[in-house]
Write a structure and sequence with these properties.
40% of the residues lie in helices and 22% in strands. The protein has five helices and five strands. The chain has helices at 2-19, 31-34, 41-48, 56-65, 134-156, and strands spanning 71-75, 80-86, 94-102, 112-121, 127-130. It has a five-stranded antiparallel sheet, covered by helices on one side.
Length: 157
């Protein structure tokens, strides 16, 4: 008897879910629809941006702005771009590495975080960690944000 009631309950639940099917959503409601967060304008705007999991303008602006550094790897769904060591030919005794985190799908200043690592070569030729001025990271973030805003304006025309 318990098995029959369980099967009946499953049949009723699946029927209720299937009744919500439409031509717009042939596979039924999404989890957001079921729990009440599927029809907000924010989620529709985020869903309209397909392809990567972060803001496309910030992503492109980061790749353009940091193109002078060798790209180590990039995760467009997680929003992490890692750059390998860069040595400026004018200062061969120091090298820099960068990681950029894109934290949101919206074009916002707080959706971007740049981390720079610096090493200097000591007298024995070994690389040792060195402090990076906080302004360096801020300047790179501002350059990326400026480029992202320019890309956004170009796209709006």
């Amino acid at each position: 008897m318990v098995l029959v009631r369980g099967a009946a309950l499953a049949l009723i639940a699946s029927g209720a879910l299937l009744s919500a099917c439409s031509a717009e959503r042939p596979f039924g409601p999404t989890v957001g629809d079921v729990f009440g967060s599927g029809n907000t304008s924010v989620s529709r705007a985020a869903a309209a941006q397909t392809g990567i999991g972060v803001n496309a303008f910030l992503w492109r602006a980061t790749l353009d702005t940091m193109s002078f550094m060798p790209l180590a790897n990039a995760d467009p769904w997680g929003g992490v771009i890692n750059y390998d060591w860069f040595i400026d030919p004018q200062t061969p005794s120091e090298r820099f590495k960068a990681t950029v985190f894109i934290l949101d799908t919206r074009l916002r200043a707080d959706a971007l975080n740049v981390t720079i690592t610096k090493e200097v070569r000591d007298a024995s030729g070994q690389w040792t960690g060195a402090p990076v001025a906080a302004q360096t990271e801020t300047d790179l973030e501002n350059a990326i944000l400026t480029k992202a805003r320019q890309l956004n304006l170009q796209n709006a025309r």
